[in-house]
Amino acid sequence: MSLSSKISAENAAFAPSIKVLACKYDGSVHRSWNVRLQTETAELWIFKGVFEEEISHPLLGVIRPGTVSIEFYWKNHCYNVFRFHQPEGPLRSFYCNINLPPVLEGDVLSYVDLDIDILVKPDLTYQVVDLDEFLENAAKHRYPPEIIETAYRSVEELELLINNRSFPFDFKN
């Protein structure tokens, strides 16, 4: 799908709706939601989603309707970053997923979620979570050694971005 490289803030509401599919390694869909393209560059897509209903998440707590998710999907990296904002606007948190690079086909963006996540608070303290789930699924699905190595390397890359307050962790309320 060819999407314009930049969509102005005024036109972003008219951007086509994209369905995001977070899949497990076996191809089954784990979660899905809709977003709208905000920006596309040669390296990444940035989408915006708005929670329509209340969600209770074990790590993020209650996510209220109207919470905004700015989602960063690098085309050639094995992670994505969600920047959550309260409905009133302030930064709520960042949530990072370790995954295989996303694929955008038509109006569907899909990626294989490798289970390791990083929860980042507004003060940029963070916690790596779900390593046990990653190890269980690596054994269950027989992840090749290069995927396991890539997953751990991706965690290190994200930790470096967070610690250096590099994009997208350079956001200021």
Helix content: 10-25%
Please state how the strands of the largest beta sheet are arranged side by side: 1-2-3-6-7-8-10
What's the pLDDT, averaged over the residues? 90
What is the strand content?
A: 35-45%
Largest sheet: 7 strands, mixed, barrel
Shape, principal axes of CA atoms:
globular
Number of helices: 3
- The first-to-last residue Cα distance is 33 Å
Q: What's the β-strand tally?
A: 11
Element-by-element helix/strand order? HEEEEEEEEEEEHH
Radius of gyration: 16 Å
Low-confidence stretches: 1-11
Question: What is the structural class?
Answer: alpha+beta
Word description of this protein:
The chain has 173 residues and is of the alpha+beta class. 20% of the residues lie in helices and 43% in strands. The chain is built from 3 helices and 11 strands, in the order αβββββββββββαα. It has helices at residues 9-12, 131-141, 145-163; strands at residues 17-23, 29-40, 44-50, 55-57, 61-63, 68-74, 79-85, 91-99, 103-105, 108-120, 126-129. The strands form 2 sheets. Strands 1-2-3-6-7-8-10 form a 7-stranded mixed barrel. The chain has a two-stranded antiparallel sheet with strand order 4-5. Strand 9 and strand 10 form a beta hairpin. The longest helix is centred in the C-terminal third of the chain and has 19 residues, at 145-163. 24% of the residues are buried.
Provide a short characterization of the protein structure.
With 173 residues, the chain is an alpha+beta fold. It has helices spanning 9-12, 131-141, 145-163, and strands at residues 17-23, 29-40, 44-50, 55-57, 61-63, 68-74, 79-85, 91-99, 103-105, 108-120, 126-129. The strands form 2 sheets. The protein has a 7-stranded mixed beta barrel with strand order 1-2-3-6-7-8-10. The protein has a two-stranded antiparallel ribbon with strand order 4-5.
